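Example record

One chain of 252 residues, shown exactly as stored in the release files.
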Amino acid sequence: MSILRTILTVLWRIWFYILLVLPILVMFPVLVIFSSSERLYPKYYVCARIWAKCILYGMGFYPEIKRMQHLDPKKNYMLVANHTSMIDIMMMLVIIKQPFIFVGKRELAKIPIFGFFYRKTNITVDRNCAKSKLDVVTEARRRLDMGESICIFPEGGVPEDRSLVLDTFKDGAFRLAIAHHIPIVPITFYDNKKRFSYKFISGAPGKLRVKIHQFINTEGMQPGDRKDLRNQTRQVIFEELSKDLQNENPSK
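Predicted structure tokens for this chain:
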């Protein structure tokens, strides 16, 4: 039975990469047009959400969203969430209806087809290059000035230690939020690591719970407040994950 399960899991994983590319190929001409200009980005974002839904539902996932506060489509925000899985990107696109820009690692731009559009429409960073990090801050400021929201996974990547509940947060998202006086939107993904971790032979279809927490206001904050803001945001997500783990393992 375990051999059969392994074979089915491998096929299911391969199906993910087919789903990653197939909707892009279907929408390719439209995506090329909509990604050609920042003015057309809201239309591109609609296509990106369709792509994300095709992958999640096609893999047998179904999001269950708990919203403690709703985003105002006339305002922009700094979206931050724990990062444990490749499907974090799709989940963020599904749960947030208004357009935003990802700040993410440059390695994703190497993925065939997907990487082409990822590079054109988002802000990529080489975490080993100081100049790249400075360029990201400049570009993120420009996009925020345009009134767009930004999404950053503040752990800076998926932790190598899979037993880690939540890695330390980096300052970038909080420095930008304070500079532009925009609210932080903490988001907790409960099940993404369990359902689709970076370990290839693992995971299964099922529910993907997510919680959009009360926003954290940055009005009146100064640059020196970024560490307190960072720690406050991390604590919100950490406590939620810890509470969920405790509910799963009440004896511990």
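Notes: Strands lie at 61-67, 78-81, 100-105, 123-125, 149-152, 184-189, 206-212.
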